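Person: I have long wanted to understand how a fold can be written as tokens. Underneath my words sits a plain record pairing an amino acid chain with its backbone structure tokens. Those tokens are not coordinates but codes from a learned vocabulary of shapes. I should like you to check that the lines agree and flag anything odd. The protein I mean follows directly.
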Amino acid sequence: MTQQMNPSVTTEAILKNAFAAAVSVADPQVIVPQYLAKIFPFGQEPQGKCLVVGAGKASASMASALESYAKVNWPQTKINGVVLTRYGHSSPTAHIKIVEAGHPVPDQAGMDGAKEVLALANELQAGDVLIALVSGGGSSLLTLPVEGISIEDMRKTTEALLRSGAPIEEMNIVRKHLSAILGGNLARVAIARGARVEALLISDVTGDSPADIASGPCAADYSTYLDALNILEKYHLGTDAVPTIVLNHLKQGLAGEKPETLKDIDLVDAQVANHVIATAYKSLEAAADYVRTQGYEPVVLGDTITGEAQEVGVSQANLAREYLAKGDKPLALISGGECTVTIPAGLKGRGGRCSEYLLSLFAASADLSKIAALAADTDGIDGSEKNAGAWFNGEVRKLAQPQGLVPETFLAAHDCYGFFAELGALVETGPTLTNVNDFRIILLDK
């Protein structure tokens, strides 16, 4: 039941508290121990060697949580490993090495760390356990190219895909087919050596498929070399944008001259399990539970909303207008899903997909005085700057006019960060050490 509204709580506080609720339900320090207890019940803790590897914006926090749990519950188990995370997203560990590396564009630190992950996996023996800690961001962090392709080739390919506006799912299909680890190849190494694989996944992707989360290092892959080539063709990424050696590798794979990514048939009789321990939808539900306590009826629009950020902003402004016209009670429209931002040649832009969506919503809802909204990335970093996203309410809107801030001008320049920075309306959390995709909330008051 929705409670009565509390007039002493501002819309700014409600927006930010809803975001905090969404983030906290995906906290690795809480959820990793819960799942380890399920996967390894009392008396069935890992025997032999326990290798912990992983990658993603939440992976270091996951490693820290695993070590704390193991210290109490698996005192006889020897743990070692390597986990890669984005710069600034580290957590303290005693036995698991944390490597900070580049994201979203891979760098040498990531490549060196990924080499170490693969080398350790190749030392596994029958009876050993490989625990993979995987979250969003892992695709670029685990960029270990197949033989013959350099880190510079991978960097150029990633940059070309980012500029093209290709959604993350399509980017990852290409990267899987250039990687020695992604697309199930990490599990393939462990399977060949007779080890058991348990992967814990924090999902930042639509549909929460293990094959899509950080490009599925331990999951069977549904995509093919043909899919990868079709994606490059779709965005007109030829030899002028993507290195020739990359295109040649994909063509050789299509011709059957290179092995495909891991498939379901490869997992017959294998000890491999992928556990999705946090999802965007669970976070949306946590935010919905919170706004109910503040007198708002939540409408969860889903965690699969994608598309160009500016177009989604306009669409949701229209949706808000419809709800206001037919409803008579305060509502909260809550959604997730990863939008895209396509930057024209010659523009650098400042911000990310959350702040771009929000400024588009701001501009398209100028006639709605009772609207307040927030959009932020649950990992704490939205795009090119250090903010998680941005927010606005009626008071923020009133500040824009006397300052001469025209939202359309900032949208055209893709400088959404600059707009909200001028208004003091950025959401700044620092790295949250988790990642369940983007979070958006619109409060509608009568």
About this structure: The chain has a mean pLDDT of 94. The longest strand covers residues 78-86. The chain has 16 helices and 14 strands. The CA atoms of residues 153 and 243 lie 6 Å apart.
